[in-house]
UniProtKB/TrEMBL annotation:
The chain crosses the membrane at residues 7-25, 45-66, 73-91, 103-119. It is found in: Cell membrane. The keyword Transmembrane helix applies. InterPro entries: DoxX, DoxX-like_oxidoreductase. It is a multi-pass membrane protein. This is DoxX family protein. Belongs to the DoxX family.
Length: 127
């Protein structure tokens, strides 16, 4: 039986892999660590932090595909996305394209999808 989150898990895995893998092979991770993270106060840990983020993308993608540890995967990725919003995207506004550039809407959508994976049956509130 195929679970009802399979399509979302595969889509997220593709997004995480396409965001994580290229920078590992073209110098992008080191550049992000040196030219951004180190410059905004993470020095001297910018490069190791950048690598931790990209490695987490790859590991989380694999775990999404095999449907294991979905809540921890979601929490880790949501935290990374939230930091991206705070440190980069919020100052650019809402829109990624169209009404703006590099805004928060894409990260917002990804966070919502990860929340759905964490709670596919919704949250039960005590009444």
């Amino acid at each position: 039986m195929i679970d009802n989150t399979l399509i979302l898990r595969i889509a997220l895995a593709i997004i995480l892999l396409s965001h994580g893998l290229p920078g590992m092979f073209d110098g992008g991770v080191n550049a992000f660590g040196n030219s951004f993270l180190n410059q905004v106060g993470f020095s001297p840990l910018g490069v190791p932090l950048a690598w931790a983020i990209k490695i987490s993308h790859v590991l989380c993608a694999i775990l999404l595909i095999v449907n294991k540890y979905i809540k921890p995967v979601s929490i880790v990725t949501i935290l990374i996305l939230l930091m991206g919003i705070i440190m980069v995207h919020a100052s650019e506004g809402w829109f990624v394209v169209g009404g703006g550039r590099n805004g928060v809407e894409y990260n917002f959508l990804l966070i919502c999808v990860f929340l759905y994976l964490m709670f596919p049956k919704g949250l039960k509130l005590k009444s």
